[in-house]
Write a structure and sequence with these properties.
The protein is an alpha/beta fold and 677 residues long. It is built from 24 helices and 21 strands. It is globular, with a radius of gyration of 32 Å. It binds adenosine-5'-diphosphate and magnesium ion (MG).
Length: 677
Amino acid sequence: MQSVTAIKGIGEETATALADMKIYNIKDLLEYFPYRYEDYRLRDLAEVKHDEKITVEGKVHSEPSLTYYGRKRSRLTIRLLVDRYLIQVVLFNQPYLKKKLAINDQITVSGKWDGHRQMITASELKVGSPDTKKDFEPVYALKGDMTLKGIRRCIQLAFSQYGQWVEETLPEPLRKKYKLINRRDAIKALHYPLEQGNLKQARRRFVYEEFLLFQLKMQTLRKIEREQSKGTSQEYDEEKTAAFIQQLPFPLTNAQSRVIKEILADMKSIYRMNRLLQGDVGSGKTVVAAISLFASVSAGFQGALMVPTEILAEQHAESLKELLEPVGISCELLTSSVKGKRRKELLVKLKTGDIDILIGTHALIQEEVEFNKLGLVITDEQHRFGVEQRRILREKGVNPDVLFMTATPIPRTLAITVFGEMDVSIIDEMPAGRKSIETYWVKPEMMDRVLSFMNKELLKGRQVYVICPLIEESDKLDVQNAIDVHGTLVHFFQNRYQIGLMHGRLPADEKDIVMKEFGENKLQVLVSTTVVEVGVNVPNATLMVIYDAERFGLSQLHQLRGRVGRGSEQSYCILLADPKSETGKERMKIMTETNDGFVLSEKDLELRGPGDFFGKKQSGLPEFKVADMVHDFRALETARQDAAILVESSYFWNADEYQLLRSYLEETGVFDGEKLD
Ligand code: ADP
Ligand code: MG
């Protein structure tokens, strides 16, 4: 692609300034789209809302008056007749304009409309009529030395000299199907929109193009993953599996039945399963895991369940044993505390196939562990396991089906974006009769009442979590806060209750000890930073108090809240928060109104936008120039469906009209030009 210096009128100096904005070649420049537009359409004042930006044309009605206040500060006031309205126009610090204006001059001003005072605070003033062609002017994000005028000029030059070379990426049939304008016209309209409709068409076209390219990439990855890594077809025993489901202590929810169908179909197919299972805390993922593992064993394979911590491994081992051992399936737990002779025996049994299911941390696949015939690997809390673990598995020569389970509800749009190369199953229904957690939003001044409520629950023999104030990006201060809160509570409760403390600076084994003690009710109150494990199960804990709740994301609050409400007793969550903004208040309010993680995650996405949704560090989100995942989600779905069909068609991989899309895939390194049809 040609460098920007190939454009006549752009020299080295400008090129350097452009490079600072990551604009290197002509394509970069042409596709450096405005993030908003100045709207210069003339408006009838009667329709303009207070505080809106407007442009009007009018006649200077009387001699403008100029007042100085301070040495350099001035205010120029003009009485302007606009149609039948007489309004005021105010300009700050441009005294020289007074001389240029005479009574009865026709002028055009742009600025902010003050509806109460019938006044415009003007940012621009032009003698004469408005430029009729320019209803909108593009506004670009700037960096370094570049000015708005400068970038507009560069783009103008690029378009006039190279605009005609813009290549069409979308083939005719797709453009026809969705009535999309061609690429060149779309680029032109985004930089120089003539009217609103024109801009909308241009946006539509690019939104689709961006999503299609992105989804083609994801779907190609998925195809490669499926077809080029050998899978195992697990011919599970359908009758036995159905009978196993029959004898469970409860009927499955519809959602559970649906996801099990999806999982079993994957296991049976010759492809390797690569599936994400999402389900809110308590939605019953464990039993889904148990059924899948049962099916795998019935097909003559072994299964593994991996979780992030040893405590969770113990808890899962217990639940799986309860479900699977009565039907003759052997489950074993492998943790670092299984040592010596016992460990050796266990490993031998695993190798000979005498153990059906192994449960543990990721050490399961890293250490000296050898399976006889591994068919299915399930990982809980998928974000802790990554590509690396999968590579290790592959290097061990096993290509088991893989199911990732997560309790973090991710809105569908984000799920299919971030996990675009995976298949996604969602349990969006809770088992019947589940008590919801009563949630209250309380101002910090009411701490006394919170303490007495805590006392009440403790008197009933229940336990309490206290989540500490969060200070962004300062682990050290977070720890200090936890220590302070712990001190306060120890002082308040004297020796009546044992109060534990947990934070990120504790060594892992100490954390485990604290958690264990809380689990055994040796500690009645647990003061903790957010390190308290997702998935930890202490049914006797019925109250959670969260400090500074406004600082957490809704999904995170929901995750934390899921630590209570795990027993038969009514549970409570108290959010201590004093949010200043309306959004902040709305967020606290919605927490008190719903217990549905998916509703909350959609709301969170809406209120905070996709960038903030996952937090700053781990975003993994693609960047789009024009498209917006939240608002354009319908286009995203459409593009995903189209991409899925395309990558499976041999026409896509061969036809000339798809050449540009294919070469884009090559550029992104997804595939290296080999035929995938
Ligand atoms: P999670 O999705 O958080 O892992 P669990 O699998 O731990 O949820 O399930 C939470 C509780 O709900 C368990 O006690 C489990 O036995 C119970 N459960 C799961 N499925 C059902 C169902 N279909 N009907 C009634 N109770 C269920
Ligand atoms: Mg679970």
